Structures are given as structure tokens and as C-alpha cells.
Amino acid sequence: MDQTNENHFDVIVIGAGAAGLGAARTLHDSGLNVITLEARDRIGGRIYTSRDNTGRPVELGAEMLHTAQNPLLQVLADAGVATVDVGGTRTLSPNFAVKLTHLLDTLDEPVHSQSASDFVRQVPGSAERELLAEAFDAQLGREALRRTSAIDAIQELRLELEHGEFMSTFNSRVPEGLDQIATVLAAGLQVHTSTRVERVEHHEKGVSILATVNGQSQGFHASRVVVALPLGVLKNNDVQFEPRLPVGTVQAMHDIINLDIVKILFTFSGDVWNLPEDIEYRAEGPLSAIWNSTFAGASTKETVVVAWAVGDKARSLLETNIETAMRQALEQVRIQLGDSGLDPVFAGFHSWATDPYARGAYSHLPPGAAPDARQRLAAPIADRIFWAGEATATWRSRTVHGAYLSGLRAAAEISASLTSAERKAFQLSV
């Protein structure tokens, strides 16, 4: 690649989602000259906050911050951005953690190709089977258990026990919009949007990046690169690598799959959510999904109602004409809220599968996938290419803060890889 007239940096970060911005923020704050390249015309990645025609933030992508230990809660607090505790979407049975710890200690480890559903079926004792099914069901946003790796699901449960907190038992919202996370992380950083990376070359002297900007090719050069792109983009070979990626990296990409997720949203004038205080209800019928409303304490001038479908339910929706799905969804909301004349002032439908810069929602390990696929995908290449993104996160993958933490991990790996000469050249403390 011709490096004439290229832009030179210490580190290039590809992708301005939570992972890329987390890496860029950390590296920039350590004194490195960092640029972030983003193909979209906005930052945030799969955090996608739209402002409907009332000006209210509507989350077409990620919607909540999960767990009380979420590090992004402190990031937002430090920046003066308010968050609201909206409680949990699930209440676990009494002594759940103690009973689960004992159960996992007595069970044989699942085999490589075993699904979570098959593993549950082989557990002796109905109470034990019910407990394990409850534990798997609490792992927010998974595929059906028949399409879930038992090894991966068990490992996640062990990590949750180790950290003392389970998903979906505590959630927070950002009233100003979840995109405030991206805004806070990107403050003061060099971020080039509408810059689509086409090619990444790594060599003895560093890395060279070829991107398309306003229809024109532009080159960038750096010592290191962080690739923080969605799994679907990598699997589709939207970015070419030279030399070709190691077999282990490519195999890891294909071991991990993308979850299918669909969201349907309606904004209504006034406070129309008259259901009990539970944050959600599960609807069946023509549109099988999880519905939830605006959070407690939100403005009563409008109500945002969201349907969230994952896995088989999402695929069923994607096979349906969008207009039909929206009509069925509105009918269901009217029935549930007891108002046949309820009309939205805003209606939205979103699927990451149709987005060329995502090509799918978050990641998932199916039966037969290598248990260490995420670790292998995250492995640096020649101390030049480093990886971030929720698909590389071994803890809290499928979440915004899992993505963010993967960015911090990639930044730490880069820092550890720098030689004394490089630190001196980058004007860092040796």
C-alpha cells in the first residue's frame, strides 16, 4: 500500500462503538496520538438513540445498562449524566446462588457439542432441572437453549457466581438517551465518521489502513490498530487483511454466530401505560415478544412502548412483511392497554441484520463452538492488530459494558506491547 501523504498516528481504532471508543479514550488519556475511524455518519455503533418527532430519545439499539456493577454507570456519573435505576426484569428464587453453586459443583461438565437444552434434560432430579433451567433463562438475550452451547452457558453462570451478580436482576436507563455514553467517551478524541475502512495491512514498521472517505481512497498509518468492528462485518469480509488473518482467528469468527433481534417501538401522547409496575410483560400470539414501557419517573407527556424479540421470535418477525408486523404489534398494544383507539405519534421498526455496518445484533456461541472462541478472536496478531468488541468479551458479552471492557482490555494489551524505544518515540514515560 502506498504510504505517500498518509496520516500518521500512534494507534488507529476502527469502529466508534462502545468498544472502540473505550479503547480510544484509554489510549488517548495515556498520551498516545489516536484516531478513530467510523463508517457510519454517527458514533455509538449498536447504541442507536433516535429522537422521535416529540424530541424524546427512542432507543432503536441497546436500551438499558445491566447490573449494578456496570462500569459505565461511573463513567456517566463522572460526566454529570443522570441514570435511573429501573429495577430488575427478573426475580430469582430464594437462595438461588447457594443452590446453583452446589448444583454446578455436583454436575459433570457438558461435552463440546452439547446444547443447553440437552444438558438440562440429563440432569437428575426435577428440582435440579428446574433450577438449572431458571439459571439459563436468566441469561438475558440468549438464543433458544437448543441453539446455545452448554459449555458457554455454564461458564457464564460460574462467572456470575464469582462476581456475585446475575444479569437482568438490576437495570438502569439514561433519560437523556443511551447515546450519551458515546458522547462522553468521544469527548476530545479524533473521530472521523463516514470513513469506511476497506483494508488493513500489518508489517514490520506498523499498520497501514486504506479507507473510503466521500468516495475517495485515503490512507492512514500507525504503529498499532484496534479492530473494534461487529462480528457480522468481520465474517462478511467487509474489511480485507494483509497478510491474511491466522486460521485460528478466522475459525473463531465462524464459531461465533450473531443473534437475530428485532425491536418495534411506538410513542404515544400522554401516560398510557396502565399495566402493573413490572417492567415487562411477555406477549404471545401473532407477535410473540417482550414488551416494556417507559421507566418509572419518566415524563408523562409521552409513553414509549417497545417490543423486543430475539432468536426464533425475531426470525419469525423478519419473515413477516414489516407493515403487517407493525399493524399486528399495534393491535396487540391496544388490546393489552384496553384502548382500541390508541394511535402512536411515532412508530419504528429496527433490525441490525439489515444494517450493512453491523450485519447482525450481538454474538452467541452455539453448540459445537469452541469454548475459547472469544479468547482466540481477541488474540493480538504480531503485536500490531488488536481486537475489541462484545464478541471478544469473555465477561458480559452481548452487553454495552462488555464491549466497553473489551476496549479497555485491548488498550491495556497495546500498552503492554510497547517497547521502551516506542514509548520514548511516543513521548510516554518509560
UniProtKB/TrEMBL annotation:
Cofactor(s) needed: FAD
Binding site for FAD: 38-39, 197
Residues of the Amine oxidase domain: 19-97, 107-414
Keywords for the protein's UniProt record, in alphabetical order: Oxidoreductase
Gene Ontology MF, one: monoamine oxidase activity
Enzyme Commission number, as recorded: 1.4.3.4
Stored SUPFAM superfamilies: FAD-linked reductases, C-terminal domain, FAD/NAD(P)-binding domain
Protein name: Monoamine oxidase
Source organism of this protein record: Paeniglutamicibacter cryotolerans
